[in-house]
Amino acid sequence: MGYKTKVQLISRKNGADQYYINFPTAVAEALEFVKGETIEWIIEDKANIIAHRPMVPASSVDGHKRNTAGPE
Questions:
Q1: Which residues of 3-40 are buried (b: 16+ CB within 10 A; e: fewer)?
Q2: How does pLDDT run across 58-72, given as a tens digit for each residue?
């Protein structure tokens, strides 16, 4: 399931329009974004945009991944 968000346009009097795309709170919290963090946008094609984090903070989860599926 994807998270939907709307593209917002801020039209300024001097003609310097800006477009904004917001991350839903659930996505931002899951990725542990911090205020002022830099994200790089990569255009794959006209249907896909990739957001890249050049500086990723250390994980807040200690240890190894757990196998929650149970015994095989």
A1: eeeeeeeeeeeeeeeeeeeeeeeeeeeeeeeeeeeeee
A2: 777 665 555 555 555
